[in-house]
Structure formats: structure tokens, C-alpha cells
Amino acid sequence: MILMRFFIIGFGQAGGKILDMFIENEKMRGSNIRMRWLAINSARTDLMGLKHVPVQDRILIGQTIVKGHGVGTDNKLGAKVAQEDIETILNAIDERGTHDMDAFLIVAGLGGGTGSGGAPVLAKYLSEMYSEPVYAVGILPAPEEGKLYSLNAARSMISLLKYVDNLILVDNGAWKFEGTSLKESFAKINEEIVRRLALLARAGEPIEEDVVGEMVVDSSEVVNTLRGGGISSIGYATTLAESSEKKRKGFRLFGRKEEEEIEALENDKPMKIATLVRRAALGRLTVPCNIHSAERALVLVAGPPEHLDRKGLEKAKIWLEEQIAGVEVRAGDYPTRRTKYVAALVLLANVTDIPRVKELQRLAAEAKEEAEEAEKMRMTKTIELFDEDIEPLI
Fold first, then answer.
1. How far apart are CA 271 and CA 279, in angstroms?
2. What are the tens digits of pLDDT across the range 149-207?
3. What is the distance between the alpha carbons of residues 149 and 142, in angstroms, rounded to a whole number?
4. 369 pLDDT above the threshold of 90
5. Is CATH 3.40.50.1440 the classification given to domain 6-201?
6. 112: annotated binding-site residue?
7. 321 and 288 in contact (C-beta within 8 Å)?
8. Which of 161, 190, 227, 296 could form a disulfide with 328 if both were Cys (CB 3.0 to 4.6 A apart)?
9. Domains 6-201 and 233-349 equal at CATH topology level
10. Binding residue per annotation — 332?
11. Binding site annotation covers 16?
């Protein structure tokens, strides 16, 4: 069995936080996945705030330009400092080794400065220097974060799509949590991202000794699903895996016939798995999109082995084949006794109907036009301050 081994690079504040949470998650579950990672930032305080990324795996860039204070929301400056220190970044990647990695995964917020500007620069060099695929997880800003963030995201997204083998988008605007502060909401969104990445990384992980997988998905199938560029979205759903003993306790309220009917329904594992996959595909996606516009799809179901079912996976696969534009749907399971839940992940690859991206382009165009108009007005008012009779020096 082949393991999906990512070299994960958290670029900028959002990327670093997600990487930090991912490492914490892997430590908590005692994972034996062999991965490598780096956190890259132009702000020293952001790097210092990480709790789980080893200090030796943190890289501060742009010290000669921004002196460790970050680039603010200037993603052009973010690209500049990444370009200036690209040799330092690439050397750090080489030092950690790439010979047994399946893919690079760059994680970055696209609305800010460092990650938004630096991620495309790194993607360009990685795509030129390595044969392994380069993927990116890009977090889109919510509309209320302002037009500048939308302009940054549009620039970054267009640049990333030139160099990455696939761009997985996450829309902050679609992941609002009522009754929480912006900081709390972002933390919850990061948790959702980590859950999906952790399950995707399970593809091909050595299964525990006493359990057997029904349908195995390995790293090559993940790579084939994400091949060819474009934008992808991920759906996810979970359900509690209750034991048969717990179910029977509730049956005492009914007669024997009713108990048998309820037990038959509860034990319909194929239907439960198929329904869970539908919930994942039709529920809250990382970026809302038209499922019918997806070119390929991947289904991965994880949970206690007695709650997984090959027929259910096959039913889900057939249903998904009917939903997407293409015909390539891969499906597999990851049996584990380390959880009380059954989780389904649906990766929709190369989706083309994404309303949020169209809206982002519109906001970015407005922001660019307003910025240009403001600059013209500023220059006009500045010139008007001086008398025309004064001659300039040069």
C-alpha cells in the first residue's frame, strides 16, 4: 500500500496557523504518517506564535526589506520578499528531503500580503524544479473583509493557477459561524480545513493490524484525481458510529416486530454510507460550486471497520458518477478504531461553475478601478498645491 506523503508549506499567517493545527492533529491521533513541513512568514511575531511547528522548521523571509515586521496587505511586496529569499526556502526544502514525497502542498490565505504574494512565487519554482505535483490550498477572503482583499485574492489565484497542478479553494465567506467573533470564526474554519486535509492524507496510510480495508485508495489515485490543473472543492460529513449494544437498549420501548424493523433499518450499512457521501457532496463545500461542473471526483470514507461497507461505497460512487460532468470517480475506505465517528470526504476536482470566483473577479475589478481613480485624484490635488511659475529641478 502506498502512502500519500505531502510536503506541506504554510505560507503567511493563515497558512502557518493551519499547518500548526494540522501538526497538532497528527500528534493527537498518534499518526505514523511521514510528512515534512515548513512555516514561512515575513512577520516574526506570527512565526513565534506557532505552538506545534518545530522552531527549526520556521523560516523568516524579507528581513532586509521589512525587518521582520511583515508586508501588511501588500501582496506585491509579499511576492518581492519571497523572490528575494527563494534560495533560502528551496535550500530548506532540499535539506528536509523530497525523494519520498508524493506532492507539495502550499497552504496560504489569498487576501493578505505574505501568503497571497509568496505562494505563487514558490509554486513557480517548485513546478520548474521538481517532478512531484504541486498543490495549493487557497483561502478566499469574505466579501466584508474589503475590496483590497478581493483584489489580492484575484491576483494571487490567477498567478497560482499558472503553476500549481490543482488549487483547492476555501471560501471564508461561506463558512460563517453565527455568534462568534471573527477570530473565533477563522479558528473554526481552520479546524474544518485540517479535518479535510487529515482525511485526504489518510489515503494509503498503513491500516491497523487487526482491520482490513474494503476498497483501498492510494496516493496515485489522489494524484490522478487532481491532475491537469484547475480548481477543486472538498465536501465532508460525519455521523456517530453507535454500537449495536447501544442501539438495542433503545428497542426495549417497542414490540418485537418494531425492534426487528428498526434493527434492519439501522443495519442497512450500504444505505448509511451512500447517504453520508451524499451529505458530504451536497452539503457545505470548501468553496460552493455546481457539482455538475466537476470533471473528476474522489470519495474517501473512514471509521470503525464494522461501520464501513463496500456496497455502500459502490452505490455512492455510481450516484456521484451521475452527478458530475466527467465519468472518473474513485472511491476507497480507511478503517480505523481510533475514532467513534464515520466520516466521508468528497473531493470535486476541476470544477468550473463557481459563483464566488465570479463575484471575486467583479470586486477585484472594482477595487482596481477605484484605486486607479484615487491615484489620479491624489496626483491632481498634489500638483494643484504648487504655483505653476515654480520651475522643477529636473
1. 12
2. 988 999 999 999 999 999 999 999 888 777 788 788 888 999 999 999 998 887 655 55
3. 9
4. no
5. yes
6. no
7. no
8. 296
9. no
10. no
11. yes
Q: Is 382 annotated as a binding residue?
A: no
Q: What is the mean pLDDT of residues 337-363?
A: 90
CA dihedral 278, 351, 361, 284 (to 10 degrees): 10
Single out the residue of 11, 92, 7, 96 nearest to residue 46, CA to CA: 11
Report residue 372's pLDDT band, with 50, 70 and 90 as the boundaries: confident
pLDDT for the residue 213:
64
* 336 labelled binding-site residue: no
Name the band, by pLDDT with cuts 50, 70 and 90, for residue 252: very low
Angle among Cα 322, 328, 330 to the nearest 5 degrees reads 100
70 is in an annotated binding site: no
255 annotated as ligand-binding: no
Q: Which amino acid is at 334?
A: Y
Q: For the CA atoms of 221, 222, 225, 227, what is the dihedral angle to 10 degrees?
A: -110
Cell of 21: 493545527
**184 Cβ neighbours under 8 A, 6+ residues apart:** 177
Annotated binding residue 75: no
Q: Position 136: which residue type?
A: A
Kindly report the CA angle at 340 between 338 and 343, in degrees rounded to 5? 90
Q: Answer yes or no: is 14 a known binding residue.
A: yes
Q: Which CATH superfamily is domain 233-349 in?
A: Tubulin/FtsZ, C-terminal domain (3.30.1330.20)
Tens digits of per-residue pLDDT, 25-56?
Answer: 988 877 666 789 999 999 999 999 999 999 99
The domain segmentation of the chain, as residue ranges, is 6-201, 233-349
Report DSSP state, residue 107: E
Cell reading at 160: 497560482
113 is in an annotated binding site: yes
Q: Residues in the chain, how many?
A: 394
Tell me whether residue 41 is annotated as binding. no
